[in-house]
Amino acid sequence: MKKIIIIGVGAQGSTIAKRMDEEPNVSEIICADYDLKAAESLGSTLNKATAVQLDGSKLQNVIDTCQGCDLIVNGLPLEYNLIIMEAALTLNTPYIDMAGPMIEELGYIGSYEHIFSEWHEKFKAKGLTALIGGGSAPGLTSVMVREAVEKLDTCETISMCLYDGIWAKKFTPFWWSPEVAFGDMGYKTFRYENGEFVTDTPFSRPVMMDFKGVDHKVRMVDHEHDEPVTMGLLANKVLKGAKNIEFKYGGPAVDLSESFYKMGLLSLEPVDVKGTQIVPMDLILKLSPPAPKYPDEIQAIINEGMEMEEGAFLVRVEGKKDGQNIRIDLYANAPGLQEAFEKSGITHESYSTGQCASIFTKMMVNDVITEKGVFPPEVLGDDARQYFFREAAKLGITIDETIEKRLY
Questions:
Q1: 353 within domain boundaries
Q2: Among 46, 45, 41, 66, CA closest to 54
Q3: How many structural domains comprise the chain?
Q4: Which of 130, 271, 296, 361 lies at 20 to 30 Å from 234 by C-alpha?
Q5: pTM of the entire structure?
Q6: Strand-strand pairing, 306-321 and 324-333
Q7: Cβ contact 318:157 at 8 Å
Q8: How far is CA 50 from CA 13, 32, 56, in A?
Q9: Are residues 144 and 123 in the same domain?
């Protein structure tokens, strides 16, 4: 029986807490958040929970609050990751988060290089497990990629494509934090190309793609994401020498953001407007409606009606098996907005990320994950991946696979 702490009980953290409340091997859940009211509100609905207030920006506060816990689950924004990881190291406690850290002075790629070397060795030396990026993307994407790659002798190309085609009559540009979303949209992109990392501009390399279950072509663009970086760094270790790795994104939110970007509205540099200095991004965020958080807000959007609700979550891996060219397509099927709300009272975005994170957390609680050090889910072995897929299916998240062989 294990005592766990979940730091940050927003949409994802609260989903993890609810799932762990049902887990036999969990004896106690500490729900920690800067917003004590949010922690208490969640804790009051659970059988095993205690609510505490925690400022995750202060290392000693985190250490004090996590004393006696057997697992630290970090549901905070990525700028807090190193603080929470440092607390885990100090307390000799396993750790999990949903997105890797960002060390500003090292940049995106440099941050992961640092984590996979120095921090990996620190955790490994203590015999500790630190799983980073244990959500849906990264997370589910990572497990799907490794599953497909294992069917090949050598891997050439990995493409991860996420089409979010949900558009409500009530203007809802994003189903998660607009600040995070617009920041990601306007950030430079990374891909792994011919065995080297390539940095590019936002919304680069547009392509029109066909997806199973979508009756029209979808415009997809490169998008800043963890997977091309972590997978590029680990290509020779666990992905059979993959040479090209990309993450593409498409849908109404992407189209809107691209228009803003081309107009300069995602810029952080002030511009003069009739004698007043205004930061364009500040204006966009001021005018953007927040993502729906509470059930009554989500219900109101659904009641007003949907203009479009479709999507696709595709992992495509290409390589060779027995000398033949092979293409493997894996599609993830998960509840859309209305189904996710009916199941759990949350949005589709929160459902897929939170439920996948709850599975990775369950794997940590039950010692399914045995690797030591700091690593992303693409490192997980066959038994752990099969466990993940079985648990995901119980939550309505399933995977369809298609394998194509080219004879000549």
A1: no
A2: 66
A3: 2
A4: 361
A5: 0.95
A6: antiparallel
A7: yes
A8: 14, 8, 17
A9: no
